[in-house]
Design brief:
The complex is a heterodimer of chains A (about 230) and B (about 850). Chain A is an alpha/beta fold and about 230 residues long. Helices cover about 35% and strands about 25% of the residues of chain A. Chain A has a single domain, classed as Rossmann fold. A 6-stranded mixed β-sheet of chain A has the order 6-7-8-3-9-10, with helices on both faces. In chain A, strands 2-1-4-5 form a 4-stranded antiparallel β-sheet, with helices on one face. Chain B has about 850 residues and is an alpha+beta fold. In chain B, the strands form 3 sheets. In chain B, strands 10, 11, 12, 13, 14, 15, 16, 17, 18 and 19 form a 10-stranded mixed β-sheet that branches. Chain B has a 6-stranded mixed β-sheet with strand order 7-3-2-8-1-9. In chain B, a hairpin with an 8-residue loop joins strand 2 and strand 3. In chain B, helix 10 runs antiparallel to helix 23. The chains are: A alpha/beta (about 230), B alpha+beta (about 850).
């Protein structure tokens, strides 16, 4: 049985500016992502990696083309539907973690569950469970400024996965971590994605990420350059 | 330092919105100061000019019991202390009613054109008109010609030149011709003045060669002129003296409000400077890492602040000039209510005001930037580059120290206005400096609700600026609460007093009461007519004279007090039951007003020396009564005692007590038809007039308070905008995690609401404390009026509710900005 398709982009184009100053960040990209895949999205700076992540995450709208995630077209979603999509079917991991400084670790992890409508008690239980899964059960009450970068990124991964999303998007998740912490985070992301059947798309410059991925997509100047298994 | 400054300015150019918000904060602060100053100066100068044009530049008037003779002039001019003298005939006249208009009261003012020049304050336009139309020559030659302003001619339905008018002076009616003369200020007096030659005025008044008075300009350092029997030297009109005290009171009031505007504006500038430093911490850190010294960095930040302050101040001066145009109408309205009609004057911006405003704007910006600049420069480069720095809060001991300072100032009993005003400002400053600490205490235990917890966290991490914004709002709010309570308490007491003391049914006074020289009296014929009216039961008269004593001027009244006797209308504060007081009064004792008792420390049983016609006489004080009509000393005697002491000085006012069932308005109309030279008011009208005058007096205060509050709301808006600009990536993260835009809106509203709530929570008790200072300290010491503090909780809640709504609306602005961009754009702001 072939794996379930989680996301599809067809003829995807994103243009910033207009007239003479128009710049195509993405120019006719076709990509498909499948459940359980751990895909590295590579390319030089300005190649359109972050733009592709934001379009797949319904955080921006394409100029042309089609995007479908988990069977749902993202074209023409209103704020309510886009917000529901993000908190129920999508997980996002940022380079700078982006934890809310005034919330404790478990409160940060619980945010997407709360936005999806879960009660406080239920979201707290799921949050603590997620923190245990990323190896930080003892740090549930700590605040971001009381944790190391690696610990913060683990919390961010737990946050991304709390609603069992179909697609996890990560933008340079190891870019702000040391080698050891980066490797741990990477391993955790791949393991948890596979465990839950999510597709994980990681935008990165880090060769270690590409090496760990099941597939590598390379963008150059907004166009798909290569899409194949990574060289090991 | 130049390189650093260039880097800072380039950064400012690159963050246009933030720079614009900074400029706006400074500009609004400067604009308020300029507007208040220009509006008050323009109105007060114009106001003073109005007096000069009506009362002239005379320093004194020489009056006599009988008409004065023109032969007295050479003697007066020979007196060493007399700089100038002019003979004057001044008489009330009536233009009888016609089918198209009712009767009009006018004043005929006869002057000698050759002697009048030093006394008159005509505009250059009026002087040009007098010259080109040879108006004064015509006055000498044409013995039925009078000059009137264009608006008076229009009101009378006459053309600009040569219109005929029947004019009744006393019992004689004569036909005169009128010509137009504008720019003399004559239209502004009440009733309007018709200017003419002395001889024409004498003819109209039936005075032959007699005069009403002499106007004098006396040398203050020379001895006063020798007076002949029956002559009396007086200030031109009480109105002029009141103008000075009015001007002083206005200036004090406006000065306090101006300081308040500066304080609020400085807090805005501080907020902006703090934000600029916070936003640039990483850049400043990089500069420090590259070898820029702390001193050079601090200097560059301050120079940049000065440049931004200058740019904002230039804009603020222009804005203030525009704002003054609208403010001046309100000042003029207040002045008009108290002293007769004053048209709103034009506003002009002089170089000195503009320069001072620029200096204040730049100085406040630099002073406000000092702390943030020092904090940025002193932070180690590594820490600055990391950007994890909390802005310092005002020292915790500052607020208590300011409160102690204020308490000490209030303990100085001699100071009525200045020290209590400084104390009020110190308390306001203490409020603002305490606010960040209070906010921190309140945020120590964040709520469990998600949005509230997020909002609390965001506020707590920007305490220096959010606290300053809440403080900037609390200051004018507290002051507004204080004024609301003080004015409300005062108003309530005045209403109760007016209800209690106005025991008559009709009140009669000469039409030009406010201008009243002592010669202005109600005629015996009028009093007889009143008494003879079938609906009038009895008439209460008031004789009123002013006398200078060693401890200031006294107003001394004499009355039958029929209304008091029959209707018990007097609020006795000290001295026992009213019946005992009246018995003592009839026996020759005196009643004194509360301000007089306060000022001289007098109580019932003490003795009071009054300068009578035949020398000083000592009277016993029988009681102290409440009175809001005169803030100087007021002594009330029985009519018989008054006549014994001062002779028959004539009746200034009268009150009629009507028979049961009589209609006061019918009697009023009958009296006014027969005597157009007097003003007859029903008790209801008089109460309305008292309250209208009261309300209008405080109208300008409310306008200025409103501006200060609006300024503080701009502060809240800019603080929220700063918070938004600094932390908008957090909103992007929340949106990326699935937060809906309305949840983001809720978060921003909770932040705005929390700041407003804390500001109001503090403003209420501080405002009540300040109200106590205004009521119990400033009012009692300044005017001698004591009244209990009455809190109108409805009005206070309304004020705080309105401010809360305005603050919440300000909170929506960042939300609208958030909605404009995509989540990607919000996330980009962190890079």
């Amino acid at each position: 049985m072939s794996p379930r398709r989680v996301a599809r982009c067809a003829s995807l184009r994103k243009v910033y500016g207009s007239g003479d100053t128009a710049v195509a960040a993405l120019d006719g990209v076709d990509v498909e992502l499948f459940a359980g895949e751990f895909v590295a999205l590579t390319g030089p700076s300005g190649s359109g990696k972050s733009t592709l992540l934001h379009l797949l995450g319904a955080m921006d709208t394409p100029s042309e083309g089609l995007i479908e995630v988990d069977g749902q077209s993202l074209t023409g979603l209103d704020d309510e539907a886009a917000s529901r999509f993000r908190c129920e079917r999508l997980g996002f991991v940022f380079q700078f973690f982006h934890l809310m400084p005034s919330l404790s670790a478990w409160e940060n992890v619980a945010l997407p569950a709360r936005f999806a409508g879960a009660e406080r008690a239920e979201s707290e239980a799921r949050s603590r469970e997620g923190l245990a899964r990323v190896g930080l059960p003892a740090l549930a009450e700590r605040f971001p400024d009381q944790m190391s970068g690696g610990q913060q990124q683990r919390v961010a991964i737990a946050r991304a996965l709390i609603n069992d999303p179909a697609l996890v998007l990560a933008d340079e998740p190891t870019g702000n971590l040391d080698h050891v912490a980066g490797a741990e985070v990477l391993e955790l992301l791949a393991e948890l994605g596979a465990e839950r059947g999510s597709a994980v798309l990681v935008a990165t410059h880090d060769p270690a990420v590409t090496a760990a991925a099941t597939r590598a997509i390379r963008l150059v100047d907004g166009k798909l350059d290569t899409d194949d298994e990574p060289a090991r | 330092m130049r390189v650093v400054l260039r880097a800072l300015l380039a950064d400012a150019r690159g963050h246009k919105l933030q720079t614009l918000v900074t400029l706006l904060g400074v500009a609004v602060g400067v604009a308020v100061i300029v507007a208040i100053h220009l509006a008050s100066e323009a109105s007060l100068e114009h106001f003073r000019g109005t007096f000069d044009s009506v009362a002239g530049r005379a320093t004194h008037e020489l009056n006599g019991a009988a008409p004065l003779s023109t032969e007295r002039l050479p003697e007066l001019l020979r007196e060493p202390g007399v700089i100038a003298a002019q003979p004057v005939v001044s008489r009330l006249a009536v233009a009888p009613a016609r089918a198209d208009r009712p009767a009009r009261a006018l004043r005929v003012l006869g002057l000698d054109p050759f002697l009048a020049a030093p006394f008159l304050e005509f505009s250059s336009a009026a002087r040009a008109q007098i010259g080109s139309a040879r108006l004064f020559e015509r006055l000498l030659l044409e013995h039925d010609l009078l000059l009137a302003p264009g608006e008076v001619l229009a009101d009378l339905g006459l053309p600009d030149e040569g219109g005929a008018l029947d004019l009744r002076v006393g019992s004689t009616t004569r036909r005169v011709r009128l010509a137009r003369l504008d720019g003399s200020g004559l239209a502004r007096s009440d009733p309007p003045v018709l200017l003419t030659d002395l001889a024409t005025a004498q003819q109209l008044a039936g005075l032959d060669t007699g005069l009403t008075r002499y106007d004098l300009i006396l040398d203050p350092d020379a001895p006063p002129p020798q007076l002949a029997a029956g002559e009396r030297l007086a200030r031109p009109a009480r109105r002029g003296e009141r103008a000075d005290s009015m001007t002083a009171a206005f200036r004090t009031n406006l000065l306090c409000l101006g300081f308040l505007a500066v304080l609020v504006g400085a807090f805005l500038a501080f907020n902006m400077a703090q934000f600029a430093v916070t936003r640039r911490r990483a850049m400043l850190g990089r500069l420090r890492c590259l070898g820029c010294s702390a001193k050079a960095l601090q200097r560059a930040v301050l120079v940049e602040a000065a440049l931004l302050g200058l740019a904002g101040s230039v804009f603020g001066v222009a804005l203030g000039r525009a704002l003054a145009g609208t403010l001046v109408g309100d000042v003029a309205r207040t002045v008009s209510t108290l002293y007769g009609r004053v048209d709103p004057p034009g506003v002009s911006l002089d170089a000195l005001t503009a320069t001072a405003a620029l200096l204040v704007g730049v100085g406040a910006t630099v002073a406000a930037s000092w702390g943030p600049a020092r904090s940025a420069a002193r932070t180690p480069p590594v820490l600055v580059a990391g950007g994890v720095v909390r802005d310092p809060l005002p020292h915790r001991a500052l607020a208590p120290l300011l409160c102690v300072f204020a308490a000490l100032l209030l303990c100085v009993p001699q100071s009525a206005v200045v020290l209590p005003s400084i104390a009020v400002l110190a308390i306001l400053l203490a409020t603002a400096t305490a606010m960040p600490h209070l906010l921190r205490r309140l945020l120590e235990h964040p709520p469990r609700q998600l949005v509230a917890a997020l909002a609390a966290g965001r506020l707590e991490r920007s305490l220096a600026r959010t606290g300053a914004a809440a403080g900037a709002l609390a200051m004018p709010l507290a002051m507004t609460v204080a004024l609301l309570v003080m004015v409300g308490s005062f108003r309530g007491e005045v209403v109760a007093w007016a209800e209690a003391v106005l025991g008559g049914d009709l009140y009669v006074q000469p039409l030009e009461q406010e201008l009243a020289a002592e010669s202005l009296r109600l005629s015996p014929a009028l009093l007889d007519a009143m008494a003879a009216h079938p609906q009038v039961e009895t008439v209460d008269t008031l004789r009123l004279i002013e006398r200078a004593t060693d401890s200031g001027e006294l107003l001394i009244g004499g009355s039958e007090l029929e209304a008091v006797r029959r209707r018990g209308t007097m609020r006795v504060l000290q001295g026992g039951p009213l019946s005992d007081v009246l018995t003592a009064l009839d026996a020759g004792a005196a009643l004194i007003s509360e301000p007089l008792a306060q000022r001289r420390g007098l109580a019932p049983g003490d003795s009071l020396r009054l300068p009578g016609r035949d020398g000083e006489r000592e009277l016993t004080v029988a009681a102290v009564f409440q009175d809001f009509s005169f803030d100087r000393g007021y002594v009330l005697l029985a009519a018989r005692t008054h006549i014994e002491l001062f002779g028959e000085t004539g009746v200034r006012n009268a009150a009629a007590l009507l028979r049961p069932g009589a209609d006061p308005e019918v009697v009023r109309d009958a009296l006014m038809a027969a005597h157009p030279e007097v003003l007859v008011r029903t008790v209801a009208k008089l109460r309305d007039d008292v309250l209208r005058a009261f309300n209008d007096t405080f109208a300008i205060t409310y306008v200025l308070q409103g501006i200060s509050t609006a300024l503080a709301l701009v502060g809240i808006l800019t603080a929220l905008l700063c918070l938004h600009l600094e932390r908008r990536h957090e909103l992007g993260v929340l949106r990326a995690l699935g937060a809906r835009t309305r949840a983001i809106g809720g978060l921003l509203l909770v932040e705005a609401g929390a700041l407003m709530f804390v500001a109001e929570l503090v403003a209420l008790p501080v405002g009540l404390g300040l109200a106590w200072i205004l009521v119990a300290v400033v009012n009692t010491r300044s005017f001698g009026w004591s009244f209990p503090m009455a809190i109108d909780f409805g009005a206070v809640s309304g004020l705080l509710g309105m401010a809360l709504v305005a603050g919440l609306l300000a909170g929506l602005v960042p939300w609208l900005l958030t909605r404009r961009g995509t989540i990607s754009q919000l996330l980009e702001t962190r890079r």
